[in-house]
Amino acid sequence: MSGEICLVCEGHKDSVTHAVFSNDSKYLATGDMSGNIIVWSASSLTKVVDVQVEDILWLKWHTKANVLFAGVVDGCVYFWEIPSQKCKVIPGTGVDTGVGVIMPDGLRIAVGYNDGSVKVFNLKDLSVLHTIKTPKECVHPEAPILCMDAHPNNNLVTYGDDGGNVVVLQTQGGKVVAVFDGVCSVESILFLKKSSELNILVAGNTSGEIHIWDYARKVLRHKVVTEAGLSKLIFTEDESRLLASSLQGFVFVINVLSGSIAQTFTCHHESILDICFIPMISAFVTTSDDHCARVFELTREPETL
To answer: In residue terms, where are the WD repeats (predicted)?
Structure first.
């Protein structure tokens, strides 16, 4: 970890808002505000794909194959086989799509829209399997869906929206399982996956609160107050610790089972835009509006779940 720059991704036409590695680490996809998507070979550091679509709202790789998905402003979802560039399009209805999540079996995708609805698609024939609108049990009115996560049981999906609603639903039947109050704009949401029998769901909002629920019993286990609006949540590889990046430049390390803040890192002078964990060296990387990328080592021994 020398901090040496290995590749400068040149050729974009506007601000680059997305940069995502494929799950096998063979490719890096970058996308800009003009809708230009470029895919780079991680081994040769060369450009292998260059395509143009509408304004990109999210960019994500398939969980099992080198297939790249992009959700755009009119609600369409494009996906390409890489490097062949064979393309399919899930049609939109004119409503922006803010997020999408591929199910663990790799055969379906759940897409969240700005009208508060979720659609589940079959990726083989692009048919709509289910459409779920904002449940009437929600405390807040329908709002754009900002974040989603899929459960390893290949059925449950959870989402958080801009109004503060948190919903857990079944993708195989379209049934709503649970509804929670995330208070205000929910920026990030995660299932605890490696210990899924604990039925833990975590969500972070722009008020700096992290809610930890037992979604099966529909109860709040813990509320963690950081007093710094949150931008993203990620788990360490063994899920013993939750890392929460903030709009004030801090990263909080949280024990999910106890609901306690174990460490606080002062990382940047401005908002943290993204955070990722590096298992090989037990470290995390942050990028910020202060134009810096920084690497921090997690030195404390993790708790056992």
So the answer is: 9-50
Question: Which two structure tokens, joined as six digits, stand for 173?
Answer: 């039947």
The class (CATH top level) of 1-93 is: mainly beta
Give the strand pairing for 186-191 and 242-246. Answer: unpaired
What would the two tokens of residue 279 be?
């298992």
Cα separation of 196 and 152, whole Å?
8
43-94 per-position pLDDT tens digit: 998 999 999 999 999 999 999 999 999 999 999 999 999 999 999 999 999 9
Report pLDDT digits (tens) over 132-173: 999 999 999 999 999 999 999 999 999 999 999 999 999 999
Instruction: Specify burial of residue 123 (Cβ count, 10 A radius: 0-12, 13-18, 19+).
Output: buried
Q: Is CATH 2.30.30.760 what the domain over 236-304 is classified as, yes or no?
A: no
Whole-number Å distance between alpha carbons of 276 and 302: 17
Q: Is residue 257 helix, strand or coil?
A: coil
Contact 57, 73 (CB under 8 A): yes
Tell me the C-alpha distance between 66 and 117, whole Å. 28
Sketch the domain layout of the chain as residue ranges: 1-93, 95-225, 236-304
CA geometry: angle 202, 289, 275, nearest 5 deg: 35
* SS3 category, 243: strand
SS3 content of the chain, % helix, strand, coil (to 5): 0, 50, 45
DSSP label of 289: T
Collapsed DSSP state (helix, strand, coil) of residue 279? helix
Judge: domain 95-225, CATH 1.10.10.10: no
Q: Is residue 197 helix, strand or coil?
A: helix
Structure tokens at 268: 């940047």
301 to 147, 244, 249: CA distances (angstroms)? 30, 18, 24
Tokens of 163: 């109004």
